[in-house]
Write a structure and sequence with these properties.
Layout lengths: L2 H8 L13 H12 L4 E6 L7 E5 L1 H7 L3 H5 L9 H15 L7 E7 L5 E13 L2 E10 L1 H57 L8 E5 L5 E4 L11 H4 L10 H16 L4 E9 L5 E11 L7 E8 L1 H59 L5 H29 L7 E4 L1 H18 L3 E5 L7 E4 H18 L5 E9 L2 E8 L6 H4 L10 E2 L2 E2 L6 H11 L3 E7 L3 E9 L6
Parallel strand pairs: 12-14
Antiparallel strand pairs: 1-2, 1-5, 3-4, 4-5, 6-7, 6-10, 8-9, 9-10, 11-13, 14-15, 15-19, 16-17, 18-19
Length: about 550
Protein backbone atom coordinates (compact mmCIF):
# COMPACT_ATOMS: atom_id res chain seq x y z
CA UNK A 1 0.00 0.00 0.00
CA UNK A 2 1.44 3.37 -0.97
CA UNK A 3 1.51 5.90 1.77
CA UNK A 4 1.24 9.02 -0.38
CA UNK A 5 -1.88 7.82 -2.15
CA UNK A 6 -3.48 7.31 1.27
CA UNK A 7 -2.65 10.93 2.13
CA UNK A 8 -4.36 12.07 -1.00
CA UNK A 9 -7.51 10.13 -0.02
CA UNK A 10 -7.68 11.17 3.65
CA UNK A 11 -6.69 14.83 3.37
CA UNK A 12 -7.77 16.08 -0.07
CA UNK A 13 -6.50 19.50 -1.10
CA UNK A 14 -3.38 19.30 1.05
CA UNK A 15 -0.51 21.22 -0.55
CA UNK A 16 3.18 20.81 0.04
CA UNK A 17 3.35 24.12 1.87
CA UNK A 18 0.75 22.91 4.33
CA UNK A 19 2.54 19.69 5.25
CA UNK A 20 4.23 19.79 8.66
CA UNK A 21 8.02 20.01 8.79
CA UNK A 22 9.54 16.66 7.94
CA UNK A 23 12.76 17.19 9.85
CA UNK A 24 13.78 14.16 11.94
CA UNK A 25 15.38 16.50 14.44
CA UNK A 26 12.20 18.58 14.77
CA UNK A 27 10.04 15.54 15.44
CA UNK A 28 12.54 14.08 17.86
CA UNK A 29 12.70 17.34 19.87
CA UNK A 30 8.88 17.48 19.91
CA UNK A 31 8.38 13.90 21.08
CA UNK A 32 11.16 13.95 23.65
CA UNK A 33 9.67 17.13 25.16
CA UNK A 34 6.35 15.31 25.66
CA UNK A 35 8.26 12.21 26.83
CA UNK A 36 9.56 14.17 29.81
CA UNK A 37 6.06 13.87 31.30
CA UNK A 38 6.70 10.10 31.58
CA UNK A 39 4.99 9.00 28.35
CA UNK A 40 6.52 6.64 25.81
CA UNK A 41 5.83 7.69 22.22
CA UNK A 42 5.83 5.53 19.10
CA UNK A 43 4.86 6.65 15.57
CA UNK A 44 3.48 3.78 13.44
CA UNK A 45 3.18 3.71 9.61
CA UNK A 46 2.36 1.10 7.04
CA UNK A 47 5.17 0.46 4.52
CA UNK A 48 5.68 -1.92 1.65
CA UNK A 49 7.92 -4.00 3.88
CA UNK A 50 5.94 -4.08 7.10
CA UNK A 51 2.46 -3.33 8.44
CA UNK A 52 2.45 -1.05 11.45
CA UNK A 53 6.16 -0.43 11.15
CA UNK A 54 7.73 1.82 13.78
CA UNK A 55 8.98 5.11 12.23
CA UNK A 56 9.87 6.92 15.45
CA UNK A 57 10.38 6.08 19.13
CA UNK A 58 11.42 8.31 22.04
CA UNK A 59 13.84 7.40 24.82
CA UNK A 60 11.06 6.99 27.41
CA UNK A 61 9.37 4.33 25.24
CA UNK A 62 12.65 2.42 24.89
CA UNK A 63 13.16 2.50 28.65
CA UNK A 64 9.62 1.20 29.26
CA UNK A 65 9.85 -1.79 26.84
CA UNK A 66 13.55 -2.52 27.48
CA UNK A 67 14.75 -2.23 23.86
CA UNK A 68 17.32 0.10 22.34
CA UNK A 69 16.05 2.63 19.77
CA UNK A 70 17.73 0.68 16.96
CA UNK A 71 16.00 -2.54 18.06
CA UNK A 72 12.57 -0.93 18.25
CA UNK A 73 12.85 0.65 14.77
CA UNK A 74 13.30 -2.80 13.22
CA UNK A 75 10.05 -4.09 14.71
CA UNK A 76 6.37 -3.93 13.96
CA UNK A 77 4.19 -2.26 16.57
CA UNK A 78 2.45 -5.63 17.11
CA UNK A 79 5.76 -7.06 18.44
CA UNK A 80 5.45 -4.77 21.47
CA UNK A 81 2.09 -6.09 22.71
CA UNK A 82 0.81 -9.21 24.45
CA UNK A 83 -0.58 -11.75 21.98
CA UNK A 84 -3.93 -11.75 23.81
CA UNK A 85 -4.30 -8.02 23.04
CA UNK A 86 -3.36 -8.12 19.33
CA UNK A 87 -6.75 -8.89 17.77
CA UNK A 88 -8.46 -6.00 19.56
CA UNK A 89 -5.59 -3.56 18.90
CA UNK A 90 -5.28 -4.51 15.21
CA UNK A 91 -9.00 -4.05 14.68
CA UNK A 92 -8.83 -0.57 16.26
CA UNK A 93 -5.77 0.25 14.12
CA UNK A 94 -7.53 -0.72 10.89
CA UNK A 95 -10.61 1.30 11.83
CA UNK A 96 -8.49 4.32 12.72
CA UNK A 97 -6.59 4.02 9.42
CA UNK A 98 -9.89 4.02 7.53
CA UNK A 99 -11.17 7.07 9.36
CA UNK A 100 -13.65 5.34 11.72
CA UNK A 101 -14.04 6.57 15.28
CA UNK A 102 -12.56 4.30 17.95
CA UNK A 103 -11.79 4.89 21.64
CA UNK A 104 -8.69 7.09 22.10
CA UNK A 105 -7.89 5.95 25.63
CA UNK A 106 -7.64 2.38 26.88
CA UNK A 107 -5.70 0.09 29.19
CA UNK A 108 -3.69 -2.74 27.62
CA UNK A 109 -0.61 -4.94 28.19
CA UNK A 110 2.77 -4.55 26.43
CA UNK A 111 5.53 -7.14 26.12
CA UNK A 112 8.99 -6.15 27.33
CA UNK A 113 12.19 -7.42 25.77
CA UNK A 114 12.73 -9.81 28.69
CA UNK A 115 9.33 -11.40 28.01
CA UNK A 116 7.52 -9.89 31.01
CA UNK A 117 4.09 -8.37 30.72
CA UNK A 118 3.68 -4.67 31.45
CA UNK A 119 0.30 -2.95 32.10
CA UNK A 120 0.08 0.44 30.36
CA UNK A 121 -2.37 3.27 29.84
CA UNK A 122 -2.41 4.03 26.12
CA UNK A 123 -3.72 6.79 23.84
CA UNK A 124 -3.69 6.66 20.07
CA UNK A 125 -4.47 9.31 17.44
CA UNK A 126 -3.87 9.95 13.75
CA UNK A 127 -1.31 12.49 12.47
CA UNK A 128 0.74 13.34 9.37
CA UNK A 129 4.33 12.17 9.54
CA UNK A 130 6.77 12.56 6.66
CA UNK A 131 3.92 13.37 4.32
CA UNK A 132 1.89 10.26 5.06
CA UNK A 133 -0.85 9.17 7.47
CA UNK A 134 0.56 7.78 10.69
CA UNK A 135 -0.66 6.71 14.10
CA UNK A 136 1.00 8.22 17.16
CA UNK A 137 0.81 6.05 20.27
CA UNK A 138 1.34 7.42 23.76
CA UNK A 139 1.69 4.96 26.60
CA UNK A 140 2.63 5.09 30.26
CA UNK A 141 3.63 2.37 32.72
CA UNK A 142 0.73 2.00 35.20
CA UNK A 143 2.23 -0.85 37.23
CA UNK A 144 2.37 1.32 40.37
CA UNK A 145 -1.19 2.55 39.74
CA UNK A 146 -2.40 -1.08 39.41
CA UNK A 147 -0.54 -2.06 42.57
CA UNK A 148 -2.06 0.90 44.47
CA UNK A 149 -5.51 -0.04 43.12
CA UNK A 150 -4.98 -3.64 44.22
CA UNK A 151 -3.80 -2.38 47.61
CA UNK A 152 -6.92 -0.23 47.90
CA UNK A 153 -9.12 -3.18 46.93
CA UNK A 154 -7.37 -5.43 49.45
CA UNK A 155 -7.70 -2.75 52.14
CA UNK A 156 -11.39 -2.37 51.35
CA UNK A 157 -11.94 -6.16 51.52
CA UNK A 158 -10.03 -6.26 54.83
CA UNK A 159 -12.16 -3.47 56.23
CA UNK A 160 -15.37 -5.14 55.07
CA UNK A 161 -14.24 -8.41 56.69
CA UNK A 162 -13.38 -6.58 59.91
CA UNK A 163 -16.74 -4.82 59.98
CA UNK A 164 -18.51 -8.13 59.36
CA UNK A 165 -16.58 -9.81 62.19
CA UNK A 166 -17.25 -6.91 64.54
CA UNK A 167 -20.91 -6.90 63.57
CA UNK A 168 -21.17 -10.64 64.28
CA UNK A 169 -19.49 -10.16 67.67
CA UNK A 170 -21.83 -7.29 68.48
CA UNK A 171 -24.84 -9.39 67.44
CA UNK A 172 -23.69 -12.23 69.70
CA UNK A 173 -23.09 -9.78 72.53
CA UNK A 174 -26.57 -8.32 72.11
CA UNK A 175 -28.09 -11.81 72.19
CA UNK A 176 -26.24 -12.55 75.42
CA UNK A 177 -27.41 -9.24 76.81
CA UNK A 178 -31.01 -10.02 75.97
CA UNK A 179 -30.63 -13.39 77.70
CA UNK A 180 -29.21 -11.71 80.81
CA UNK A 181 -31.98 -9.13 80.81
CA UNK A 182 -34.60 -11.89 80.58
CA UNK A 183 -33.05 -13.73 83.52
CA UNK A 184 -32.88 -10.51 85.51
CA UNK A 185 -36.55 -9.79 84.85
CA UNK A 186 -37.41 -13.29 86.02
CA UNK A 187 -35.38 -12.77 89.20
CA UNK A 188 -37.00 -9.39 89.78
CA UNK A 189 -40.44 -10.98 89.30
CA UNK A 190 -39.64 -13.58 91.96
CA UNK A 191 -38.32 -10.89 94.27
CA UNK A 192 -41.43 -8.76 93.81
CA UNK A 193 -43.65 -11.71 94.70
CA UNK A 194 -41.51 -12.35 97.76
CA UNK A 195 -41.71 -8.70 98.69
CA UNK A 196 -45.53 -8.81 98.58
CA UNK A 197 -45.47 -11.60 101.12
CA UNK A 198 -43.13 -9.90 103.54
CA UNK A 199 -44.84 -6.49 103.23
CA UNK A 200 -47.67 -8.02 105.27
CA UNK A 201 -45.18 -8.40 108.12
CA UNK A 202 -43.49 -5.03 107.95
CA UNK A 203 -43.31 -2.11 105.58
CA UNK A 204 -39.53 -2.21 105.35
CA UNK A 205 -39.19 -5.97 104.78
CA UNK A 206 -37.47 -7.20 101.64
CA UNK A 207 -36.36 -10.82 101.87
CA UNK A 208 -35.13 -11.33 105.42
CA UNK A 209 -35.61 -9.55 108.74
CA UNK A 210 -33.49 -9.68 111.86
CA UNK A 211 -33.58 -7.57 114.99
CA UNK A 212 -30.30 -6.69 116.65
CA UNK A 213 -29.44 -5.06 119.96
CA UNK A 214 -27.53 -1.84 120.36
CA UNK A 215 -24.40 -3.99 120.64
CA UNK A 216 -25.02 -5.59 117.26
CA UNK A 217 -26.14 -8.98 118.57
CA UNK A 218 -28.98 -10.73 116.67
CA UNK A 219 -31.89 -11.30 119.10
CA UNK A 220 -34.59 -12.47 116.67
CA UNK A 221 -35.10 -13.43 113.03
CA UNK A 222 -38.01 -14.27 110.76
CA UNK A 223 -37.86 -17.85 109.53
CA UNK A 224 -37.43 -18.22 105.76
CA UNK A 225 -37.65 -21.19 103.43
CA UNK A 226 -34.51 -19.98 101.60
CA UNK A 227 -32.62 -17.61 103.87
CA UNK A 228 -30.19 -15.29 102.00
CA UNK A 229 -27.24 -16.40 104.14
CA UNK A 230 -28.29 -20.07 104.30
CA UNK A 231 -28.86 -20.04 108.07
CA UNK A 232 -32.09 -20.74 109.92
CA UNK A 233 -33.09 -18.30 112.71
CA UNK A 234 -31.93 -20.60 115.51
CA UNK A 235 -28.46 -20.69 113.95
CA UNK A 236 -27.93 -16.92 113.97
CA UNK A 237 -29.71 -15.76 117.14
CA UNK A 238 -27.13 -14.68 119.70
CA UNK A 239 -24.36 -14.10 117.11
CA UNK A 240 -22.74 -10.76 116.29
CA UNK A 241 -24.24 -9.31 113.14
CA UNK A 242 -20.85 -7.90 112.03
CA UNK A 243 -18.92 -11.17 112.37
CA UNK A 244 -19.77 -12.41 108.85
CA UNK A 245 -19.29 -9.08 107.03
CA UNK A 246 -16.50 -9.00 104.42
CA UNK A 247 -13.38 -7.29 105.83
CA UNK A 248 -13.32 -4.77 102.99
CA UNK A 249 -16.95 -3.78 103.70
CA UNK A 250 -16.76 -3.81 107.51
CA UNK A 251 -15.82 -0.14 107.86
CA UNK A 252 -18.79 0.99 105.76
CA UNK A 253 -21.14 -1.30 107.73
CA UNK A 254 -19.97 0.17 111.05
CA UNK A 255 -20.35 3.72 109.73
CA UNK A 256 -23.93 2.94 108.67
CA UNK A 257 -24.61 1.45 112.11
CA UNK A 258 -23.24 4.53 113.88
CA UNK A 259 -25.35 6.80 111.67
CA UNK A 260 -28.63 5.10 112.52
CA UNK A 261 -27.67 5.00 116.21
CA UNK A 262 -27.31 8.79 116.12
CA UNK A 263 -30.56 9.26 114.20
CA UNK A 264 -33.37 7.12 115.68
CA UNK A 265 -36.34 6.48 113.43
CA UNK A 266 -34.55 7.02 110.09
CA UNK A 267 -33.80 4.28 107.59
CA UNK A 268 -30.31 3.70 106.16
CA UNK A 269 -29.70 1.79 102.95
CA UNK A 270 -26.34 0.21 102.08
CA UNK A 271 -24.86 -2.76 100.25
CA UNK A 272 -22.21 -5.15 101.51
CA UNK A 273 -20.79 -8.63 101.17
CA UNK A 274 -21.57 -11.26 103.83
CA UNK A 275 -20.41 -14.84 104.20
CA UNK A 276 -22.87 -17.58 103.24
CA UNK A 277 -23.17 -20.80 105.20
CA UNK A 278 -21.41 -22.60 102.32
CA UNK A 279 -18.41 -20.24 102.66
CA UNK A 280 -19.08 -18.09 99.59
CA UNK A 281 -19.48 -14.33 99.69
CA UNK A 282 -22.92 -12.97 98.82
CA UNK A 283 -23.92 -9.42 97.93
CA UNK A 284 -26.81 -8.23 100.10
CA UNK A 285 -28.80 -5.02 100.09
CA UNK A 286 -29.47 -3.84 103.65
CA UNK A 287 -32.04 -1.41 105.07
CA UNK A 288 -31.67 -0.73 108.78
CA UNK A 289 -33.83 1.38 111.11
CA UNK A 290 -33.25 2.28 114.75
CA UNK A 291 -36.33 1.28 116.74
CA UNK A 292 -34.61 0.85 120.13
CA UNK A 293 -37.05 3.30 121.66
CA UNK A 294 -40.02 1.35 120.32
CA UNK A 295 -41.38 -0.64 123.30
CA UNK A 296 -42.53 -3.50 121.08
CA UNK A 297 -39.44 -3.90 118.88
CA UNK A 298 -36.81 -2.52 121.26
CA UNK A 299 -34.02 -3.08 118.77
CA UNK A 300 -32.61 -2.24 115.37
CA UNK A 301 -34.62 -3.87 112.62
CA UNK A 302 -32.54 -4.93 109.66
CA UNK A 303 -34.15 -5.91 106.37
CA UNK A 304 -31.91 -7.45 103.71
CA UNK A 305 -32.04 -9.44 100.51
CA UNK A 306 -29.53 -11.32 98.42
CA UNK A 307 -28.65 -9.30 95.30
CA UNK A 308 -25.69 -11.41 94.19
CA UNK A 309 -27.24 -12.50 90.92
CA UNK A 310 -28.64 -9.05 90.34
CA UNK A 311 -25.16 -7.60 90.87
CA UNK A 312 -23.61 -10.14 88.50
CA UNK A 313 -26.21 -9.27 85.87
CA UNK A 314 -25.53 -5.56 86.35
CA UNK A 315 -21.78 -6.10 86.07
CA UNK A 316 -22.29 -8.23 82.98
CA UNK A 317 -24.50 -5.56 81.48
CA UNK A 318 -21.90 -2.92 82.23
CA UNK A 319 -19.21 -5.08 80.62
CA UNK A 320 -21.35 -5.55 77.52
CA UNK A 321 -21.91 -1.82 77.28
CA UNK A 322 -18.15 -1.28 77.61
CA UNK A 323 -17.42 -3.84 74.90
CA UNK A 324 -19.95 -2.21 72.61
CA UNK A 325 -18.38 1.21 73.26
CA UNK A 326 -14.88 -0.13 72.62
CA UNK A 327 -16.02 -1.82 69.43
CA UNK A 328 -17.65 1.37 68.19
CA UNK A 329 -14.45 3.30 68.95
CA UNK A 330 -12.38 0.69 67.12
CA UNK A 331 -14.60 0.93 64.06
CA UNK A 332 -14.43 4.74 64.13
CA UNK A 333 -10.64 4.59 64.40
CA UNK A 334 -10.51 2.09 61.55
CA UNK A 335 -12.58 4.38 59.35
CA UNK A 336 -10.47 7.40 60.32
CA UNK A 337 -7.32 5.48 59.46
CA UNK A 338 -8.87 4.65 56.11
CA UNK A 339 -9.55 8.35 55.45
CA UNK A 340 -6.01 9.25 56.52
CA UNK A 341 -4.62 6.58 54.22
CA UNK A 342 -6.75 7.87 51.35
CA UNK A 343 -5.72 11.47 52.09
CA UNK A 344 -2.04 10.49 52.13
CA UNK A 345 -2.48 8.53 48.91
CA UNK A 346 -4.22 11.49 47.27
CA UNK A 347 -1.35 13.75 48.33
CA UNK A 348 1.26 11.38 46.93
CA UNK A 349 -0.64 11.16 43.63
CA UNK A 350 -1.32 14.88 43.33
CA UNK A 351 2.24 16.00 44.12
CA UNK A 352 3.62 14.87 40.71
CA UNK A 353 0.28 15.40 38.98
CA UNK A 354 -0.09 19.11 39.75
CA UNK A 355 2.95 20.38 37.77
CA UNK A 356 2.00 18.06 34.90
CA UNK A 357 -1.52 19.51 34.88
CA UNK A 358 -0.32 23.12 35.00
CA UNK A 359 2.41 22.57 32.41
CA UNK A 360 0.07 20.83 29.96
CA UNK A 361 -2.49 23.64 30.34
CA UNK A 362 0.16 26.30 29.69
CA UNK A 363 1.52 24.30 26.76
CA UNK A 364 -1.96 23.92 25.26
CA UNK A 365 -2.58 27.68 25.54
CA UNK A 366 0.74 28.59 23.90
CA UNK A 367 0.86 26.13 21.03
CA UNK A 368 -0.90 26.96 17.78
CA UNK A 369 0.04 24.18 15.38
CA UNK A 370 -0.81 20.54 15.13
CA UNK A 371 0.07 17.87 16.13
CA UNK A 372 1.77 19.43 19.14
CA UNK A 373 -1.43 21.24 20.12
CA UNK A 374 -3.40 17.96 20.15
CA UNK A 375 -0.70 16.28 22.18
CA UNK A 376 -0.75 19.04 24.77
CA UNK A 377 -4.55 18.93 24.99
CA UNK A 378 -4.48 15.14 25.42
CA UNK A 379 -2.00 15.50 28.28
CA UNK A 380 -4.11 18.22 29.89
CA UNK A 381 -7.31 16.15 29.68
CA UNK A 382 -5.60 13.08 31.07
CA UNK A 383 -4.09 14.99 33.99
CA UNK A 384 -7.41 16.68 34.71
CA UNK A 385 -9.28 13.33 34.67
CA UNK A 386 -6.76 11.81 37.07
CA UNK A 387 -7.08 14.83 39.39
CA UNK A 388 -10.88 14.45 39.42
CA UNK A 389 -10.65 10.73 40.25
CA UNK A 390 -8.35 11.46 43.18
CA UNK A 391 -10.81 14.08 44.52
CA UNK A 392 -13.69 11.58 44.15
CA UNK A 393 -11.77 8.96 46.10
CA UNK A 394 -11.08 11.39 48.95
CA UNK A 395 -14.66 12.69 49.04
CA UNK A 396 -16.06 9.16 49.13
CA UNK A 397 -13.77 8.17 52.03
CA UNK A 398 -14.90 11.26 53.96
CA UNK A 399 -18.53 10.51 53.23
CA UNK A 400 -18.32 6.95 54.56
CA UNK A 401 -17.47 8.18 58.08
CA UNK A 402 -19.62 11.30 58.07
CA UNK A 403 -16.79 13.80 57.51
CA UNK A 404 -18.13 15.04 54.16
CA UNK A 405 -20.20 18.19 54.73
CA UNK A 406 -22.30 20.45 52.54
CA UNK A 407 -22.86 24.22 52.68
CA UNK A 408 -26.46 24.92 51.75
CA UNK A 409 -27.75 28.12 50.23
CA UNK A 410 -30.79 29.11 48.22
CA UNK A 411 -30.12 28.33 44.54
CA UNK A 412 -31.78 29.15 41.22
CA UNK A 413 -32.19 25.63 39.89
CA UNK A 414 -32.95 26.64 36.31
CA UNK A 415 -29.83 28.80 36.01
CA UNK A 416 -27.60 26.15 37.58
CA UNK A 417 -28.79 23.36 35.25
CA UNK A 418 -28.41 25.54 32.15
CA UNK A 419 -24.87 26.56 33.14
CA UNK A 420 -23.79 22.93 33.66
CA UNK A 421 -25.38 21.91 30.34
CA UNK A 422 -23.56 24.76 28.56
CA UNK A 423 -20.28 23.47 30.01
CA UNK A 424 -20.89 19.90 28.81
CA UNK A 425 -22.33 20.83 25.40
CA UNK A 426 -18.96 21.24 23.53
CA UNK A 427 -17.84 17.77 24.67
CA UNK A 428 -21.09 16.21 23.50
CA UNK A 429 -20.89 18.05 20.16
CA UNK A 430 -17.34 16.84 19.56
CA UNK A 431 -18.67 13.29 19.91
CA UNK A 432 -21.54 13.90 17.50
CA UNK A 433 -24.12 13.80 20.32
CA UNK A 434 -27.20 15.98 20.81
CA UNK A 435 -27.73 17.55 24.25
CA UNK A 436 -31.43 18.37 24.71
CA UNK A 437 -32.79 20.51 27.57
CA UNK A 438 -36.37 19.88 28.69
CA UNK A 439 -36.57 22.58 31.33
CA UNK A 440 -39.63 24.73 32.09
CA UNK A 441 -39.37 28.51 32.05
CA UNK A 442 -39.04 28.51 35.81
CA UNK A 443 -38.07 25.92 38.41
CA UNK A 444 -38.49 26.10 42.19
CA UNK A 445 -35.61 27.34 44.34
CA UNK A 446 -33.77 24.73 46.39
CA UNK A 447 -31.60 24.78 49.49
CA UNK A 448 -28.43 22.98 48.42
CA UNK A 449 -24.66 23.16 48.15
CA UNK A 450 -23.88 25.02 44.92
CA UNK A 451 -20.58 23.23 44.22
CA UNK A 452 -21.86 19.75 45.11
CA UNK A 453 -25.12 20.08 43.17
CA UNK A 454 -23.15 21.11 40.07
CA UNK A 455 -20.86 18.12 40.69
CA UNK A 456 -23.83 15.72 40.75
CA UNK A 457 -25.36 17.02 37.50
CA UNK A 458 -21.98 17.24 35.72
CA UNK A 459 -21.11 13.68 36.68
CA UNK A 460 -24.44 12.32 35.40
CA UNK A 461 -24.12 14.23 32.09
CA UNK A 462 -20.53 13.06 31.57
CA UNK A 463 -21.55 9.47 32.30
CA UNK A 464 -24.36 9.72 29.76
CA UNK A 465 -21.95 11.13 27.16
CA UNK A 466 -19.45 8.31 27.77
CA UNK A 467 -22.10 5.64 27.10
CA UNK A 468 -23.97 7.36 24.26
CA UNK A 469 -22.87 6.48 20.69
CA UNK A 470 -22.06 9.00 17.99
CA UNK A 471 -25.28 10.57 16.76
CA UNK A 472 -26.97 9.68 20.04
CA UNK A 473 -29.18 11.82 22.25
CA UNK A 474 -28.77 13.03 25.84
CA UNK A 475 -31.72 14.71 27.58
CA UNK A 476 -31.57 16.83 30.73
CA UNK A 477 -34.99 17.47 32.27
CA UNK A 478 -36.25 18.79 35.59
CA UNK A 479 -39.51 19.62 37.28
CA UNK A 480 -41.43 19.64 40.52
CA UNK A 481 -43.22 16.61 41.90
CA UNK A 482 -45.10 17.06 45.18
CA UNK A 483 -42.60 18.63 47.61
CA UNK A 484 -39.49 17.60 45.65
CA UNK A 485 -37.37 18.82 42.77
CA UNK A 486 -36.77 15.99 40.28
CA UNK A 487 -33.76 16.06 37.93
CA UNK A 488 -33.31 13.38 35.23
CA UNK A 489 -30.50 12.61 32.74
CA UNK A 490 -31.60 10.27 29.96
CA UNK A 491 -29.49 8.70 27.18
CA UNK A 492 -30.11 6.25 24.33
CA UNK A 493 -26.91 4.29 24.96
CA UNK A 494 -26.53 0.51 25.30
CA UNK A 495 -28.51 0.33 28.56
CA UNK A 496 -27.76 -1.59 31.74
CA UNK A 497 -28.65 -5.17 32.56
CA UNK A 498 -31.16 -5.59 35.38
CA UNK A 499 -28.77 -7.65 37.52
CA UNK A 500 -26.14 -4.91 37.24
CA UNK A 501 -28.46 -2.03 38.13
CA UNK A 502 -28.58 -3.07 41.77
CA UNK A 503 -24.82 -2.51 42.02
CA UNK A 504 -24.68 0.85 40.21
CA UNK A 505 -24.16 2.96 43.33
CA UNK A 506 -21.73 0.63 45.06
CA UNK A 507 -18.13 1.91 45.38
CA UNK A 508 -15.54 0.61 42.92
CA UNK A 509 -18.19 -0.84 40.61
CA UNK A 510 -17.38 -0.30 36.92
CA UNK A 511 -19.88 -1.03 34.18
CA UNK A 512 -19.31 -3.25 31.18
CA UNK A 513 -20.09 -2.03 27.66
CA UNK A 514 -19.86 -4.41 24.73
CA UNK A 515 -18.10 -6.95 26.95
CA UNK A 516 -15.40 -4.51 28.08
CA UNK A 517 -14.98 -3.27 31.64
CA UNK A 518 -14.60 0.49 31.50
CA UNK A 519 -11.58 2.18 33.02
CA UNK A 520 -11.78 4.35 36.15
CA UNK A 521 -12.22 3.76 39.87
CA UNK A 522 -16.00 3.37 39.77
CA UNK A 523 -16.60 6.11 42.35
CA UNK A 524 -18.58 8.73 40.40
CA UNK A 525 -22.09 7.36 40.93
CA UNK A 526 -21.32 6.33 44.51
CA UNK A 527 -20.21 9.88 45.30
CA UNK A 528 -23.32 11.29 43.58
CA UNK A 529 -25.58 9.16 45.78
CA UNK A 530 -23.62 10.16 48.90
CA UNK A 531 -24.06 13.86 48.05
CA UNK A 532 -27.77 13.41 47.29
CA UNK A 533 -28.23 11.60 50.62
CA UNK A 534 -26.52 14.50 52.44
CA UNK A 535 -29.13 16.81 50.90
CA UNK A 536 -31.95 14.58 52.17
CA UNK A 537 -32.84 13.40 48.68
CA UNK A 538 -32.99 10.10 46.82
CA UNK A 539 -31.25 8.75 43.72
CA UNK A 540 -32.28 6.03 41.30
CA UNK A 541 -31.79 4.48 37.87
CA UNK A 542 -34.08 3.01 35.21
CA UNK A 543 -32.66 1.19 32.22
CA UNK A 544 -33.33 -1.41 29.54
CA UNK A 545 -30.66 -3.12 27.49
CA UNK A 546 -30.55 -1.71 23.97
CA UNK A 547 -32.80 1.27 24.79
CA UNK A 548 -30.79 3.50 27.11
CA UNK A 549 -30.75 4.60 30.74
CA UNK A 550 -32.23 7.34 32.94
CA UNK A 551 -30.50 8.44 36.13
CA UNK A 552 -32.51 10.68 38.45
CA UNK A 553 -32.33 12.33 41.84
CA UNK A 554 -34.72 14.29 44.04
CA UNK A 555 -34.17 17.17 46.45
CA UNK A 556 -36.72 18.24 49.10
CA UNK A 557 -38.17 21.74 48.68
CA UNK A 558 -39.60 22.29 52.20
CA UNK A 559 -36.35 23.73 53.49
CA UNK A 560 -36.66 26.77 51.21
CA UNK A 561 -39.65 28.07 53.18
CA UNK A 562 -38.29 27.42 56.70
Amino acid sequence: MAGKSRVARKIPGLTGAEVLKDSEEWHRALMETVGKAGYGIVIVQNTLEREAGIAFVNDEACEIVGYSPAEVLTKSAWDLFESSELAKLQERYRKRQSGEQVPSYYDTSMLRKDGTSLPVEASASTMVYRGDIATVLFFKDITQHREMQQELDEYRRHLEKLVAERTAELRETNEQLQHEITERKQIELVLRESEKYFRSLTENALDAIVVITKDGVIKSAIPLANPPRGYQPEEVIGTNSFSEVHPEDLSEAINAYNEIMQNPGISKRTEMRVRHKDGSWRNVEVIARNLLDDPIVAGIIVNYRDVTEHRKAAEKLEELYRQERDLRQQLEMEMKRRVEFTRALAHELKTPLTPMLISSQVLASELKEEPLLSLARNLSRGASNMNSRIDELLDLARGEIGMLQIKVETLDTSQLLREVAEYVSPVASSRGQSLILELPDSLPLVRADNVRLRQIVLNLLNNASNYTPEGGRITLRAGRKDANLIVEVEDNGPGIAEEEQQHMFEPYHRMEVAGERLSGLGLGLTLCKTLVDLHGGQMGVKSRVGEGSTFSFSLPLEAVNR
